[in-house]
Amino acid sequence: QVQLQESGPGLVKPSQTVSRSCTVSGGPFTTNYYLWTWIRQPPGKGLEWMGAIDAGGTTYYSPSLKNRASIPRDTSKNQYSLQLRSVSPEDTAAYYCARAPDWGQMDYWGQGTQVNVSS
């Protein structure tokens, strides 16, 4: 059973960086075919795809984030991360990591964590 475990602070101040990590267990992390994604859901809104990293380490980002996001990974720990820079209160959301088979719908999700951007 694949499991994704998220971690990181739940409160960030404006202009700082949202940092999330996702540790993958119970399944392959560097096998071709899977995309390891980050998704968020602002209060009262729908899900927003933020970006992903594939087995080869290539990253993909939503243009709406305006080059504020980075998705590094540590294959020795089966872990990938999200760095979202220069945040504002509009970045307040529940953040999720998830696995997507070959750009399809996500089949495994992390537990999700509310991140509030507030001074």
Throw out a few tags for this protein.
50% strand; 119 residues; seven-stranded mixed sheet; mainly beta; five-stranded antiparallel sheet
Outline of the structure:
This protein is an all-beta fold and 119 residues long. It contains no helices and 12 strands.
By DSSP (H or I, 4+ residues per run), the number of helices equals 0
Shape: globular
Secondary-structure element string? EEEEEEEEEEEE
Question: How far is the N terminus from the C terminus?
Answer: 39 Å
The total count of strands amounts to 12
Residue share in helix: under 10%
**Strand count, sense and closure of the main sheet?**
7 strands, mixed
Query: Which segments are poorly predicted (pLDDT under 50) over 5 or more consecutive residues?
Result: none
Radius of gyration from CA coordinates:
13 Å
Please identify the structural class as seen in this structure. mainly beta
Beta-strand portion reads over 45%
Mean pLDDT: 94
